[in-house]
Amino acid sequence: MSNQLPVINLMGPTASGKTALACELYERGNFELISVDSALVYKDMDIGTAKPTKEEQALYPHHLIDIITPLEVYSAAQFVEDVCPLIDDMHERGKTPVLVGGTMLYFKALLEGLADNLPNADQNVRDAITEKAEQEGWQAVYDELVAVDPIAGQKFKVSDKQRIIRALEVYRITGEPITKLQAEQPKNQPYRYTFHNYALMPDRLELHKRIEQRLSKMWEIGFLNEVEGLIVKYDLNDNLPSMRSVGYRQALDFLLKSDLSLENKVEMENKALFATRQLAKRQYTWLRSLQEIHDFKTYVTIKQAKEDLRNFFG
Question: Which residues bind ATP (predicted)?
Fold first, then answer.
């Protein structure tokens, strides 16, 4: 394949306006959309993920939405495995892929590749690690990691629960530290693509306002009812990756672990708002780290992005 095959990466924090911009590109007729979002992969998780509605998806089809149940696990490695054939198929049909979303780890995996000697996620191993944390505390789990992988211990804090789980998971499966395996394995980069990276990075105060508005709308249109339905349909627990999505964790705790009082409901909504703001903060950090390595065009406003992309793509 030619090494000039274009892939447009449209990144940004939650509520930054990425989807609207991607849909405008789609209307130009030569683009197809691929979701880069670790929450949109889950079926039946619609309101809390701000998933495009069925009507919107009919007008602007997105690949990699609604592909697994909330009981299943999806990884960055699986994303790369799924997205590359989609990109190739689009190129063969003369289309330009537009990858849109806020899961920066997936973008990083696509841009830089992943070590292919790391084992896939093992839910049983993860459950065992989480059970230890519940019984002995996260400090004990972190201490175990430091003992078997001191380099990872230096990189992570006790609060980096998901990273600690993954590092310990790799060690328990392979007997080798994840940092050693990552250092030994050359990365398998998708050299055949030419990436055009764009990022929407609104002013923080403006973004916080949009996040608050989005969450208010979610509560109004029935987010809690959605989570109640998920509890009925699936055997959910808060250790599932799907339930670590912002909003869902707080709603699940409220529905399963509280007396459902108005006071607790307000507390839950405030926690969800705080968690979403923290997510946006992490997304900004990810974006800045990616920008240190890769070429980017960054926009503060959607209007700037639309004008520039309109000029770029004609």
Answer: 12-19
Q: Which residues are annotated as a binding site?
A: 12-19
Q: Which residues are annotated as a binding site for substrate?
A: 14-19
Are residue 174 and residue 228 in the same domain, yes or no?
Answer: no
Q: Model pTM?
A: 0.80
The CATH number given to whatever domain includes residue 226 is 3.40.50.300
36 and 146 housed in the same domain: no
Q: From start to end of the chain, where are the E strands?
A: 5-11, 31-35, 62-63, 96-101, 193-200, 297-299
DSSP state string for 220-270: HTTHHHHHHHHHHHS---TTSGGGGSTTHHHHHHHHHHS---HHHHHHHHH
Report the chain (314 residues): mean pLDDT per 10 consecutive residues: 76 93 87 96 96 93 96 88 93 94 93 77 90 94 93 88 90 88 66 89 94 97 96 87 92 93 96 96 93 92 82 62
Binding residues for ATP are 12-19
Same domain for 162 and 34, yes or no, is: no
